[in-house]
Each structure stands twice: as C-alpha cells, then as structure tokens.
Design brief:
Bound molecules: S-adenosyl-L-homocysteine
CATH class of the largest domain: Alpha Beta
Distance between the termini: 31 Å
Largest sheet: 10 strands, mixed
CATH topology of the largest domain: TIM Barrel
Strand content: 15-25%
Strand order of the largest sheet: 1-2-3-4-7-8-9-10-11-12
Order of helices and strands: HHHEEEEEHEHEHEHEHHEHEHEHH
Length: 344
Amino acid sequence: MKLDKLSIILQTEPKYRFVQVNQALFKDFISSWDEVKNLPKALREKLAIECPLEIKAEVFKVAEGLRSEKVLITLDDEEVVESVLIRQKDGRNTICVSSQVGCPLNCAFCATGRYGFKRNLKSEEIIEQVLFWARYLKSDEQDNKIDNIVYMGMGEPFLNYPEFIKSVKFLNNPETFNVGSRRISVSTAGVLPGIKRLAGEKMQINLAISLHASNDNTRRDIMPIAKQYTLKETLKTVDDYIRKTGRRVMFEYLMIKDVNDRNEDALELAKIMNKPLYMVNLIPYNPTGQFKASNRERIEKFKKVLEAEGLPVTIRLSFGQSILAACGQLRGKKKIVKKAESQV
Ligand code: SAH
C-alpha cells in the first residue's frame, strides 16, 4: 500500500473528497477503489494507480480453536513485519502491531532482537497492519470489529516515537478508525525519553513497561537497555508519568526458569512494585532458544508470593504457542510454520 500518497493526490480535490475517502478506507474498509462509487471515475482510476490498496499478506491460523491468528505483511521495500489478531474469549478482538522492522535492543529472550534492526516503520505502515485486520474481520461471518490495539509486536515503539504517536492519533481519530485512547496500549523496554514524552501528550493511552527483573544485575543480563537506565531511574520516570497523568501503569514480567522466577525474586519484586497505581502482569515465557519457561505451578506460586505482599497480579494467558505467538518468532520460523500449517 502507499497510504502516504493519499494526501498528495487529494490535495487538489475539494475537501469533502477527504471525508469520502476516509469513510471508504477507514470505516467501510474497502479493498478496491472501484467500490467507492461516490468518487468520480477519473479519480478512482488515478487512486488505483498511485495509491493501490492491496496489502501483501500471509495469514497463519492457530490449529486449536482459532483463538489467535498472525499475519506477515510484506512492505513496499520487501521487508516483512508481523501483526497478531487475538480473539478473546469474551468476543473482543485485540490487534498487536509492530513498530519497527527488527529491533536494536537485543533482549536475550526475544526472537526479534536476533534479526537485528532494519528500519523504523512509517506511521502508514503501522496503520496498514490495523487496516489489514479490519478488512479481515469485516469479512468474518459475524462482521467482527477491532476493540483494542497494543504496540507489542516487533520493535521498540519509543525508539520510533514520532511515527508511533502519529499512528496512535490517526487510529484514535473519530474520522478514521475511532479506537478510543483507553483501548490503545504501548509497551516499552524502558526507553525513558519516550515515557517522558508520552506523559506530555494528554492522551489517555495505556502504558506498559517490560520489567522482567527485580534488580539491575539480572535485568542487565537479559536486557541490554538496563545498562543505559537503572531500575531506580526507570521507576522514578514512571512515578513522574503517574503523577502527571493519574494513569495506572502495567509492569510486564516474563517468567524465565531459574533466571527470575524464584521466591526471592518475587519478594524483591514486591518491594519495588508496592505502589498504588502499579500493576504486575506475569507473562508465561515462549521459549526462543537460550532460556526455558517457568512451569505453571512456579508461575502460580510466584503470583501467590506477590499477592501475600499485597500486590495486585495478573497472569497473561499464553496466546497459542503453536503459532509461535511471541515477538518476532513467526518471521524467523516462517518455513517451519508453513509446513506445520499444511499438516493441519
Ligand atoms: N519493545 C517493546 C515492545 C515489544 S515486546 C517492549 O520491550 O516492551 C512486547 C512484549 O513481549 C514485551 O513485554 C516483551 O518483553 C515480550 N516478549 C518478548 N519475547 C517474548 C517471549 N519469547 N515470550 C513471551 N513474551 C516475550
């Protein structure tokens, strides 16, 4: 797609053409300009050439129960990004989007880091991921809709701040997708300048921090960014954000066997997380090589230790290991997944 061409093409057209095009693209989710009968034929033809609507995509379904699906989208320069549709039990649909091709942060547990960093996504390319799922859901029998959007796919949103926030504002705009800001979440590995900038946005989107360790030593072992920003600095920045916005913040904590999952780790975590608007979300680890996942009992026990210290804790349900649901794993395992899919 070439969404960035739209405003250039429509520049010489009357204003109401923008309204018609926005309605067609981002509310009716058309996939061909021919469908937009209220546009003059000549304009439709021009748009078809200069702003093609095709999204090059390959969808992977989960075998068990179709709970989540993944798409690999090939961009104009042949780079590939992934996005996930999570169909929740309550019928709501969450879309997980990527913000970069690859990622420069190189967290030891994350599959995306291993491919290195290619480039930032443009806001249009982030929007394209949402648009893909909107069209996909529209074609569902139940005419499903997008309820939530999470910036938790490949890449670090706060290292691509201008395009990230541009895409958020676009998705939030009542004239386009109209996804409420409280239904949009961003997750950061702890890029502090980004947290500070978000605090000044006056946008009520949800913030999540990938914490994954209760002390700097362990955190540095698994997340190189912890060498740049200490836990103390990170939590101070989060406290400033909370003071400014009054919003709750979610701390994500991956459960990695023998790395951060002992009772002592839970007690240490409880000490630093014991603040009113902090929430802890334990994430079952999706093994990508080096580490092993904590088992279910260990996670439950870890949760109990935190709760005994008075902390509100949730466990994120693991969305379909069979499609390699965590970060960047599908892109890396493309061939294997395809083979598995053909056996289903
Ligand atoms: N760069 C951002 C957003 C992308 S990662 C961040 O770090 O927050 C989104 C979430 O998936 C993060 O919490 C990340 O730590 C987690 N994640 C990465 N690899 C994972 C894996 N193998 N299993 C489970 N979660 C993983």
